[in-house]
Structure formats: C-alpha cells, structure tokens
Amino acid sequence: MKFICSKCHHLEDVSTHQANCQCGGLWKLDFSPPTFSIDQIDKNEWSLFRYRKFLALQDDAWRSVSLGEGMTPIVPLDDKVLLKMDYYMPTLSFKDRGAVVLVSHCKSIGVKSVVQDSSGNAGNSIAAYSARAGIECEIFVPEGTSPKKINMIKAHGAKINIVPGSRDNCADVCRAKVQQQSVYYANHVYNPFFYEGTKTYIYETFEQLGRIPKHLVIPVGNGTLFIGVIKGLEHLLESGIITEFPTIIAVQSEFCDPLLQANKKGTNLAEKVEIKPTLAEGIAIGQPMRAEEILTYAQKYPIHFIHAPEDKILIAREHLALKGIYCEHTTAANYAAYLHYCELYGTINDCLITMCGAGLKSDH
C-alpha cells in the first residue's frame, strides 16, 4: 500500500512520517477496496470495523484502539427527513469514524507522539484515541473554541494550545511545528487514512436501510465527511450495489463559503472570502486544503452547495431539540441549510441529514 502525491504523483510508503509530499502536494491513498458485498461484513463486530475488509488496514492494531464507534442509528424526523445520529459516538462527534482508523494506522507504523489542529471535535477525537493507543498527543485549537471541547481534550491527557486568530491561523501555527520539529501530523485533512474511516458512513447507511437515500445533506468545511461519503458512494457504484449517485447537498456557512463561491464560478480553487464569526464554527474554514479535490467532485457528481443562513441556525437547533434531538450549532446548521434548500428549490423527500455533533459540546 502506498501514498500517492495529489500533485506530482510521487509514490511513498504509508509508513512515512512526512505529512505531505516534498513538492507540497497532499497524500492520497493508492488503495482499491474489494467489491462491496453485504456478505463480507463481519456482523459479529459491533464497531465500524465490521467493514474492515473494505478499509486500508495494515494489521489488527485497531482492536486495541477501537472504542466501539460507528453503528449509529438512523431515525425519522418526519416523513421526508431521516437523521443519522453520528453524535452517538464515543467523543460525541462523527470525527471518531476517521480518528480511530488514523490512530490505528499510527499505532501500526510505530508513531509515539502526534499533533493536530482542530476547531474542537477532531482534536478531541484524536486526543481520545491517542490516549487509548498509548500515544502522546498535542492539540492546537483557535480562540473561541467551545470550553467544553477544550475540557474534553484536556481530560484525555493531551497538551492543548489555544491559538489567537482564525481557524486557518491555528492550522498554520500547528503546521509550522510539524515542519520545524518533524512530529507526526495526525491531521484529518492531510492524512487520507481519516477518509477510510469516514467512508463507513455510507456502508453503514446502506446496511441499515438496504439503500442510499436520494438526498444526503453533508457539512463541508475541510470536507472530511464529504470526501469519505464520496469515496463510499463511488465504491458502492463500482460494485454495482447502487445504480445512480444521490444528490448531495453540501453545506457551507453563510459567513465562510469559499467552496460555494468557487463552485458558483465553476473553478477548482477555493475563493478568497471575507470570514465573519459564525455559529457554525466546525465548518468555518477559509482555506480548505483539499479544495481542488472537493470542487472536482462537485463538477463530476450531482452536488449542490447551499448556505446555512446564520439567522436560522438557532431556530433550527430549537426545532430539533423540541423533537428530542440535542445537537451542536454546526449540526443545526445542516438542518437550517436543508430548510433553506427547500425554500429555494421546493420540498424534497427521502433526505438523510447527518447529526454530527452533540449539543453539550457547544453550550457557550
């Protein structure tokens, strides 16, 4: 198994501790999973590793890292909307899907210490699984990050650095440390093993419903769930399990929308946009590092970018809470964007919305 550079196509063994190619390109994984089949799911394994025959795993390191992530229920909100309850994960966010596979990879190749930058959820997830694996961990978060997310990261024994400025500045500070000190960058954007975990969102949905809904609402900041969903759907399509690609409603914050603006112009480079403070902090990414990959997918498949109106996020959160669904603000933005989409284009049926973060994490 190899990494392949997204720019120069250089091949590198996956055991490398280099965060990216020397040319500056990000790694992709040169891995083709076997044909998907329900019969190949290990139904005795109650975690996302029931799909391990379709994941890029080197060994069984995952057995001592897993916390039982995955297997989250799908529940109806009404007769048009289904909710995938991914905040039922061990650290209360969907990021556990990618983190458990990435940290398992770290353990497989003998990594002893990792760093990560995050708006909160990914950092918390990497911190938890690193603690589980016996790997030292240091997390960088931007100022304004939910105190409850910060406390969770600390609770897992990780060192935490609160960085002044934007989420993008936080990433720059962390990456500078990676370059200067050659520490392992266990990052959900740079490392493609993370997407091996997030693609299980699709495997799980298909196993639970016996189909893929016609519409999928997916938040897009750095695109970690988005890219995993695309990879999972492509695998099902190539395996003949599904015959058509669902419509993906890709959610960006009204106050931070570089991918939406680029898609509107038909370009593959993220637009430079003015970033304003937003309740949807989890998708407030002004410089998505995999923008070209995301936007190329958007031109290839039925993908529609939509704003989450800022003034509708708390209303959407309250509506969900009154239905028993207590989610964080970024997750409520997904539902706000769905309602906005229906206002613009008409009501849609058979829609699956991810509930990606728990409400207790953003009560601030």
TrEMBL record:
UniProt cofactor(s): pyridoxal 5'-phosphate
InterPro entries on file: Ser/Thr_Dehydratase, Ser/Thr_deHydtase_PyrdxlP-BS, TrpB-like_PALP, TrpB-like_PALP_sf
Swiss-Prot/TrEMBL keywords: Lyase, Pyridoxal phosphate
Pfam families listed in its UniProt record: PALP (PF00291)
Stretches assigned to the Tryptophan synthase beta chain-like PALP domain: 65-356
Top-rank taxon: Bacteria
Protein's UniProt name: Threonine synthase
Species this chain originates from: Mannheimia cairinae
Organism taxonomic ancestry: Bacteria, Pseudomonadati, Pseudomonadota, Gammaproteobacteria, Pasteurellales
